[in-house]
DNA sequence: AGTTTGCCTGTTAAAATTTAACACTTGCTA
DNA sequence: TAGCAAGTGTTAAATTTTAACAGGCAAACT
């Protein structure tokens, strides 16, 4: 994501969303698109309230339902440590486990797929005879851009 | 934690809490102890409301302030994916990064310290020039006991 | 074409969760 | 013993999330 051509980010995310919905037999309705486009204005996490403020229809149930749908469909991530949401940049792979790098300064979020780390995490879990189904990895810290700026 | 002598868990956690407070120059007051002991009744996560219900003084600010303090002091973990809290079993090491194994069946939480996985996560972050300060690792799944029970 | 069906929306509230503000107390210490 | 910082009690309020239910809309059947 770092130094992205964000117009490209956004259009390809939209295309992907349409594909995913099609595949799920669900509709990419106005409300869902509205939430999705608002989230994809940037790579920053937004709270439900943030999003709601920018919606055409600002009623809570509308917003929460769309968020719920997008999350279940793997198109967005719920950033639990911020209680906020961000568009997923790996939506093509519905089974990916993302490591979210959350900059506490500029609030941008990058998402990487740390295959080796994940396999270590799963190994560690299995050592305790624990069978994981859902994994959250969130790191708060300072991103490259902000690091350079403050030095 | 699995198959623990929980009386032991609890007393050693209390002793540790007293030590940590002492070291921080803070007081392990009645309210803080009340929250802490309620959490340590088990290894299950409890929401703020759950805890509040069992407090001597059931007023929200009392509960939230104690939780905030205990979290900042590293004595409990905020389980962000459940928006709930659980006692930390590695409080002796204030810099540990715990991997929470959260059983969606019995709701017990185990916490392990996956050193290798963590170093891989940090390595992956640094590859993006990201400087992490706080790391959350939470896995939802089925624990050993529940796995055995359902098979 | 008309009708059923299931998904999705609109709307009205209400419940649940978290925080603000401020006066007061308590234990330390200068 | 007065002053200070940490911690509490109390009253509300703000924020976040959910329930409930009537209505609309698009694909699918007859
Ligand atoms: Zn971008
Ligand atoms: Zn993702
Ligand atoms: Zn811990
Ligand atoms: Zn279990």
Description:
The structure is a homodimer of 151-residue chains. The first copy, chain A, is of the alpha+beta class and 151 residues long. Chain A has one domain: Winged helix-like DNA-binding domain superfamily/Winged helix DNA-binding domain (Arc Repressor Mutant, subunit A, Orthogonal Bundle). Helices cover 45% and strands 19% of the residues of chain A. In chain A, strands 4-3-5 form a three-stranded mixed beta sheet. In chain A, a hairpin with a 5-residue loop joins strand 3 and strand 4. In chain A, helix 3 crosses helix 4. Chain A starts with 5 loop residues before the first helix and ends with a helix. The interface between A and B is large, with 37 and 38 residues. Strand 5 of chain A pairs antiparallel with strand 5 of chain B. Bound molecules: zinc ion (4 copies). One zinc ion (ZN) binds next to helix 6 of chain B. Chain A binds a DNA duplex (30 and 30 nucleotides) through helix 2 and helix 4.
Give short descriptive properties of this protein.
two-stranded antiparallel ribbon, alpha+beta, 45% helix, 151 residues, DNA-binding, binds zinc ion, homodimer, three-stranded mixed β-sheet, Arc Repressor Mutant, subunit A
Major β-sheet profile of chain A:
3 strands, mixed
Which strand order do you get reading across the main beta sheet of chain A? 4-3-5
Domains of chain A, number:
1
Q: The CATH topology of chain A, please?
A: Arc Repressor Mutant, subunit A
Low-pLDDT runs of chain A: none
Q: Going by CATH, what is the homologous superfamily of chain A?
A: Winged helix-like DNA-binding domain superfamily/Winged helix DNA-binding domain
Number of strands of chain A: 5
**Strand fraction band of chain A?**
15-25%
The CATH class of chain A is Mainly Alpha
What's the end-to-end separation of chain A, in Å? 22 Å
Shape of chain A: globular
**Oligomeric organization of the protein chains:** homodimer
Helix content of chain A: 40-55%
Spell out the helices and strands of chain A N to C: HHHHEEEEHEH
Q: How does the helix and strand content of chain A classify structurally?
A: alpha+beta
Q: Provide mean pLDDT of chain A, rounded.
A: 95
* Rounded radius of gyration of chain A (Å): 16 Å
Bound molecules: zinc ion
């Amino acid at each position: 994501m770092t130094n992205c051509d964000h117009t490209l980010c956004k259009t390809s995310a939209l295309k992907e969303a349409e594909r995913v919905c099609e595949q799920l037999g669900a509709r990419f309705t106005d409300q869902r698109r509205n939430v999705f486009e608002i989230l994809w204005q940037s790579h920053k996490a937004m709270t439900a309230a943030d999003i709601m403020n920018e919606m055409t229809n600002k009623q809570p149930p509308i917003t929460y339902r769309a968020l719920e749908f997008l999350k279940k469909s793997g198109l967005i991530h719920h950033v639990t440590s911020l209680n906020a949401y961000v568009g997923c940049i790996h939506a093509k792979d519905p089974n990916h486990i993302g490591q979210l790098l959350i900059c506490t300064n500029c609030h941008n979020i990058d998402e990487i797929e740390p295959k080796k780390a994940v396999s270590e995490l799963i190994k560690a879990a299995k050592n305790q005879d624990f069978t994981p189904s859902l994994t959250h990895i969130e790191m708060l810290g300072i991103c490259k851009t902000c690091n350079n700026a403050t030095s």
